[in-house]
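Replying to the earlier thread about multi-chain prediction with a worked example.

Input:
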Amino acid sequence: MNTIKKIVNFYIEGFKSMTLGKNLWLIILIKLFVMFAILKFFFFSDFLGSKFTTDQEKSNYVIEQLTNPKD
Amino acid sequence: MEQFDITLVDWSRAQFALTALYHWLFVPLTLGITFIIAIMESIYVRTGDKQWKKITKFWMTIFGINFAIGVATGIILEFEFGTNWSNYSWFVGDIFGAPLAIEGIMAFFMESTFIAIMFFGWDKVSQKSHLTATWLTAIGSNLSGLWILVANGWMQNPIGMTFNPDTARMEMMNFWEVLFNPNAINKFLHTIFSSYIVAAVFVVGISAWYLLKKREVLFAKKSILIAAIFGLFASIITIASGDESARNIAEVQPMKFASMEGLYYGTTNAPLVAAGILENDPVPENKKKQDFFVELKIPSVLSYMAFLDADAFVPGIHDLVHGNQERGIISYYEKIERGKVARQALNDYKQAKKMGDTKRVNFLANQFKDKIFLENNFAYFGYSYFDNPHDIIPSVPVSFYSFHIMVILGGHFLLLFAVILFFLYKDKLHNMKWLLLTAIWTMPLAYLATESGWIIAEMGRQPWVIQDLMPTIVAVSNIDSTSVIITISLFFVTFTALLIAEIKIMTKQIKIGPNKGGH
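Result:
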């Protein structure tokens, strides 16, 4: 328990003492928000996952794409 | 060629290229500067000289900026695999998934833990523990790269797997064969050591700016000493691994090799084109043929580079397309026919399963395990999507120029490190304005060289996404190209904003210098 507390404090004190790092963390958080909340959510759905529920269905679709790609 | 939505393919390729090239603006500096920092800190711990601690902390701050801005930009590439390249992602199965998963776990645990100790632990842990964390950050970030490059190496030279016609997936048969794929090993060595050059050029360039401004002279000289030795060492390994890589390409990707040298007709004692300018062939039918307007050739060197034999025959683009019986080269026409047999077998297997024809299903399933069928037909599966062999030739100008830009700049870096070390040793460097300016202007060239390296690696192997097995046109998902165009615009804006932020923050920190500022 003591070790976990020490590790947590290590990170808390580290973040508190940051100067330039605070701005960098802000950039990281904005970037992650853009990536996951906007890009991933609105534009990057899992193509096969969104169309099919089982692996068998996905396999059948890809085999169809491989054998008759434009059908 | 069958009717594919080329607009969608082109936009999807452009999107992947844009994100990969932007991502790679951040990665090489991280890979290299962590080792430079570790060396600097090792000197501090060994000597106890506070100047080295100051030097270490400054470059650590620069690393921190680059890491923060660049971190997670690679995840977008993984988004793209699932959305834009779903056929490819499904087809490669665990061969691509396993290395990427290892990379993700390793990057998260190693980098996040040890980077925290690097930045927060100066007064919290012992000197030796801190130094260990710094070295482990460097090793961890480089090992992350290993898994990505193993996955990429497999795409360039797919081995250690078998195709399962039931699932339409590649299944890993031999992890060690995938890991120690000669293409992956060469790619790993060449990529990480060339990244060290980028980092060394960066440290030398910034330090040269301080010398030019007559600021932080001792700091700058010590930084240049470490970075230039590191860069010189990295340059030698990069040349050696590049040489080995060229032999591997000549063996497994002969079309890429011929394209990057602009070799249209194969020959014995093939000359290396050290530099040249291409022009379109005057005959309109020879769309893909490029002649040299100007060229500087070194006799027999290409043969030696490819096969360690100055008399060896190096096949040209024409030989690969039309075949060369005398040299045992199968034509692309033949490969197309062989590939079509493999695709028909997969189609028949699919139909037999639908019809419930167990006897035929078993027969065809065994065919996909038969060594002769695999070597003679399935190995050319991807060729089946083409009717015209000329569609299987990459862009010769892109391959030729990107390769030569990379090689020529590689020579420039080696020379620069050697000259800088010589004048540093003579204690004349700080007065040599031309050399300091050259060092500063070499910084963008280092990025140009490393990006050119990826351009030849990826554009030179077109039209393949997996060499000989899956062309780019088949790998792409059947999605609306408008959404691809929108995301390209979003990426361009986001990444450009990040790049501008990086340059601004870094420039500000460099102007502040090593005596002020903090993490």
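The first strand of chain B starts at residue 161 and ends at 164.

Feel free to reuse this layout for your own posts.
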